[in-house]
Amino acid sequence: MTSTHPATRAARAGTHTRPGGAPPLVPALHQTTVHAYPDLASLHRVLDGEDHGNVYYRFGHHNGHVLEEAVADLEGAADAVSTASGMAALTGIVTALVETGGHVVADRNAYGGTRSLLETDLPRLGIDVTLVDGTDLADVARALTSRTRLLLVEALTNPTMRVPDLPALARIAAAAGVTFAVDSTFATPALLRPLEHGADLVWHSIPKYLGGHSAAMGGIVAGRADLVGRIRQSVVHVGATLGPFDAWMALLGLKTLPLRMRAHTRGATAVAGFLAGHPAVTRVHHPGRPDHPHAEVVTRLFPGGTGGMLSFELAGGRPAVDELIRRLGPAIPLSPSLADVATTLVHPATTTHRSLPPEDLEVLGITDGLVRLSVGIEEPADVVAELGSALA
Ligand SMILES: Cc1ncc(COP(=O)(O)O)c(C=O)c1O
Asked: Which domains does the chain have, with CATH numbers?
């Protein structure tokens, strides 16, 4: 081997080394797009599913599988598939489970990107979409037809924190033979496991709470093995595979998820209480408030709290939001994502939901004065004090 040219040795460096000794405590990062096989038979056994192994990145890889096993375990799912982003997860669900001529029913109180995919892309593929109020069971039941393949809701909606009754929706979907998929990005399996409440699938945007540190991109879908198998195939076909490094980082984040969700819940509860009593604030949307419109569902589904998300309306409208953002930065920055360990905020009307026309924003209660706050894991009194002086 050592008699070969340095260029040859450089090109082959590491390819045939075997890890020795005890396994690493943190799973190794397999940042490779392909694996090397000694002969055709062993490659074919893996391709045919007879042997365990990985072949080519897009088909799935070690770090993706480690993350998938961990999330499936937390969600109580038979299987999970990781994807390049949350939107790739939704694309995988739809392309795997809905055919041209099919129909999707979705809560209109969903993330703006979800709405864009549903309202812009699916109709072009010949898939009809009906938007409903996911908290109005009669509205949902009315919308289902013999062509309906999917019912989609968010466990906690973005940004007005509505809380659909998952067990009731699951019963309606099951009676109609419709797959029920829940975006649980805001809730996480630390607080809610939608599959235990009758959902067929649960999916997440990883850069939010699962990753937790605004560093790893990705998405993941967990649920029944037959459904996840079909979604995995679609994800491989469209090439929406999660990268190994993002999967590796997401796993590190996942390890502290329950701990973080307790701290996020504690912070958001304190901040919501403070904002509810502030004269500059006309409305607070937080599922933990006793005056929340779905308080009974919250008590039933979220015994351990509802996490760090809340939104509130400023009496002074957009100019007041602008002023608040200037005063809060850089301690609490305007940052168009959520679920970081540090507190951040967005103006949904002009960021997450900017693709929606004004009449849709009005129906959703996304006013010009609405601020969405993602409360981090800092000491709650500090966040309250910062908000207090900025609002003064
Ligand atoms: C609730 C929710 N679902 C899905 C998504 C989409 O995920 P991603 O940005 O990872 O594609 C987002 C993104 O902000 C979100 O907030």
From this structure: 60-254 (3.40.640.10), 257-391 (3.90.1150.10)
Are 93 and 108 in contact, with CB atoms under 8 Å apart? no
In this predicted model, what pLDDT tens digit does every residue of 123-166 receive, in sequence order?
999 999 999 999 999 999 999 999 999 999 999 999 999 999 99
Report which protein residue has its CA nearest ligand 1's atom 2. 111
Torsion sign, CA atoms 170, 176, 179, 184: negative
344 lines ligand 1 (CB under 6 A): no
- pTM of the model as a whole: 0.96
Residues 6+ apart with CB under 8 A from 37: 43, 46
For residue 46, count other CB atoms closer than 10 A to its CB.
Answer: 16
CA 175 to chain centre: 27
Q: Which residues pair with 131 in a beta bridge?
A: 106
Task: Write the residue with the smallest CA distance to atom 9 of ligand 1.
Answer: 86
Structure tokens at 125: 């593929």
Cβ contacts of 191 within 8 Å, gap of 6 or more: 261, 265, 302, 304, 305, 306, 307
CA dihedral of 107, 110, 114, 118, whole degrees rounded to 10: 30
| pLDDT tier at 22, thresholds 50, 70, 90 | confident
CB of 82 closer than 6 angstroms to any ligand 1 atom:
no
Look at the chain and count its residues: 392
Q: How far is the CA of 90 from the centre of ligand 1 (A)?
A: 10
Is 281:314 a contact under the CB 8 Å cutoff?
yes
Q: How far is the CA of 114 from the centre of ligand 1 (A)?
A: 8
